Amino acid sequence: MPLLQRYFWTQAFWPTVLALAALALLALLTQSLQTLDLIVENRQSALTFLKITVLALPQLIGIILPLAVFMAALYALNRLNGDSEVIVAKAAGASPWQIASPLVRLGVMAMIVHLLITLFVQPASFRQMRVEVFKVRTDLASQLVQAGSFVTPSRNLTLYASEIGAGNTLQDIIIHDERDPSDVITHTAKTGEVQRTPNGAALLLRDGAVQKRLPDGSLDVIQFEDYRLDMSEAFAFDTRMRLKPSDLYLGELLRPDANSFLPEPRRREYAAEGHARLSAPLYNVALIMLALCFMIRGEHRRMGYGRRIVFCAAIGFAIRIFGFTATSAAESNMSANIVQYLIPAVVILACGAYLLRRKRFTAYGAKRRAEAYIAGVAAKRTAAGTA
Q1: Could you give the angle at the alpha carbon of 4 between the alpha carbons of 296 and 86, nearest 5°?
Q2: Using the 8-state DSSP alphabet, how is residue 275 labeled?
């Protein structure tokens, strides 16, 4: 029997890996479209795009892992039934639970991996991703200047730079400032550097000149080696990086710092996210046990299990959607957090009771017809014996 169980476990494990890889790739493609807009708008490199996309992967895996396990279990059980391997195992004396236990162990392993991802890997990766996104959104050079083009970051202010190098350095700079009609100034410089200030940004220009037209129509030109031009009025940004609930660890979600003075809606949001991190891994076991109930118990179908699979898949996806709905509801009502645990727990207990039940559930109509048939046969035999 251990050899048979090991075989069943192997038949379910590799489809799980393939399903997880396929769904993760699909989720990455979807995520990359959002990241691509951010990268293109801020003119960042392909390496930045790849880094942000990969850092989003742990959360995507946490979302799709229960579904991957569920789909792999349905596939493996359907193949084992189609090859009559489950029937052979039953004929050899294996109980439904002995057949089901390898897949339940797979679900438990997936649950542990899922828990580690949601509690440790996801917050760490999302914090790093938040840092990268913050750098992109506050990249001063990309926000202020477009290489080789005249841009207008604010009204009556025009900037030009031929190149944008590493470290926010600019080449061949022209700045035409008409914000004060009575004091129109043009700055030119060979090189420059974009710097952050508490209020926004500044340009440190080198080897250039300031040109200003005087009231008599003449042009006043002043040469300089270093000149600092305040651009705060034209470009201001939030210098503080703010973390979202997905970036926080479990302790920070369920027991936020008392000195943070979080409003009550934010506390409910944190609590909902924390309980979702703990309850979501339970769906790995719940959905596998649901698949086992449909594919292990019941009569053998020579014509296939297509109808059962469709019905089981619909129920499984509905259960997971109910879980997401409970998480959303808990953000406005903290008492709904218990529902996040009840949904997978009820599925696990109900399916476990059904798998351990010695007698199969029988539809009432079928049972009644069977009893009527047996009674009829008995009556005929009695009548034949009397005659």
Answers
A1: 30
A2: H
Q: Write the burial class of residue 341 (CB in 10 Å: 0-12 exposed, 13-18 middle, 19+ buried).
A: middle
Kindly provide the residue ranges of all beta strands, DSSP E only, lying in the chain, ordered along the sequence: 151-154, 157-164, 169-177, 185-197, 200-213, 219-230
Q: Which helix (H) or strand (E) holds 382?
A: helix 364-386
Q: Where are the domains of the chain?
A: 2-137+243-371, 144-230
Helices within 209-305 (DSSP H only): 250-254, 264-279, 282-295
Residues contacting 100, CB < 8 A, separation 6+? 289, 292, 296, 355
Higher pLDDT, 282 or 380: 282
pLDDT band at 282 (very low <50, low <70, confident <90, very high): very high
Strands 200-213, 185-197: parallel, antiparallel or unpaired by DSSP?
antiparallel
Which amino acid type is present at position 307? R
* Least confident segment among 49-53, 203-207, 355-359: 355-359
pLDDT tens profile 153-203: 778 888 888 887 766 688 899 988 888 888 889 999 999 887 777 666 778
Instruction: Give me 183's structure tokens.
Output: 């004091």
Beta bridge partners of 229: 203
Q: Which residue has the tokens 């990249």?
A: 139
For Cα atoms 330, 289, 343, give the angle at the middle one, nearest 5 degrees.
15
Q: What distances in angstroms separate CA 64 from CA 10, 24, 350, one per listed residue?
A: 21, 7, 23
- Reading the block at residue 105, the tokens are 């162990």
